[in-house]
Amino acid sequence: MNRFYLLLLSFFSPLVLLAAEPSAFGAGDITSGNPYGLTKDEKLLLETEKKLKKVSTKSKLQATQLESLRERVDGLQSVLESLSRKAQTNKINLQNIEQATDGSLKSIEEYQKRLSLSIQKNKEEIDALKHLTSELTKSLEAISIDYVTKADYNALVTNVNNFKIVVAKEIKQIATVGTKKDTIAGIDLYKRAKSNYKKKLYTKALSDYEELIKRNYRPAHAHYMVGEIYFKRKDYAKAISYFKKSASLYSKASYMPKLLLHTAIAMLKTGDKQHANAFFQAIVAKYPNAKEAQVAKKYLDNL
């Protein structure tokens, strides 16, 4: 288009020079603001010049607009490149998130597997403990059948031996104290029995604990202490009988590990290795942190 304008200008330039020569009165001057007396060619030249000016102005405007559009396109291109970079970054982040999610899922699955194994192991241990408890219950029932008669027999023998062996003075003191027992409060009698036991006055302690049993004052503990006294006297059959009664009255007592241990030892002393073994195992399983469990393990190692 610019070439076309140049050709027009080169064609009409001689005419312009001719027309530029003024007349005596200014006629034919196409450069004046309001020319007059123009010839047909001059008028055509003037019109062409006006059109060329308009075309030039429009061309400059279009060039400006084109430059503006180019700048906008460049701006959009920059935005597009920025968005493209962000999209790539987001894609990488998404891949990282997916990888992290996969890792988390694997960790969760591994934790669930470990938890499942732990639950299964706990269940097996609980089942084993239940089985051992069942065996212990059976053993207690067997003890009730196997030892009651023997315990009664030994009780008679012990009573006879007590009259022969125990010092006559202690027997007289027991008789004297026995007349006063009914006037002593249960708590005081309990304290006295405990004190006599600590002093190793087992005959007096035995009498006091038997009175507590009659009164039904802390009977579980009283039976246990009577069992301990017979255990110390090596009257194992009778000790087992009282231990069994104590456990049946209250099986959650703090002294239960010691009661079970002495029961097991008493069984071993009377030749009942099978039930003794069951009791030693029960102590280790149910009271693993108790000192009695360590003693029970030593017995098990030697059985």
TrEMBL record:
Tagged with keyword Thylakoid? no
Any one GO MF term held by the record is: transferase activity
Q: What keywords tag this UniProt record?
A: Coiled coil, Transferase
InterPro entries listed in its UniProt record? Sel1-like, TPR-like_helical_dom_sf, TPR_rpt
Coiled-coil features, chain-numbered ranges: 66-100
Under the heading SMART domains, the entry gives: SEL1, TPR
The reply to whether Chaperone figures as a keyword in the UniProt entry is no
**Which Gene3D superfamilies would you find in this protein's record?**
Tetratricopeptide repeat domain
Protein name, entry field? TPR repeat containing exported protein Putative periplasmic protein contains a protein prenylyltransferase domain
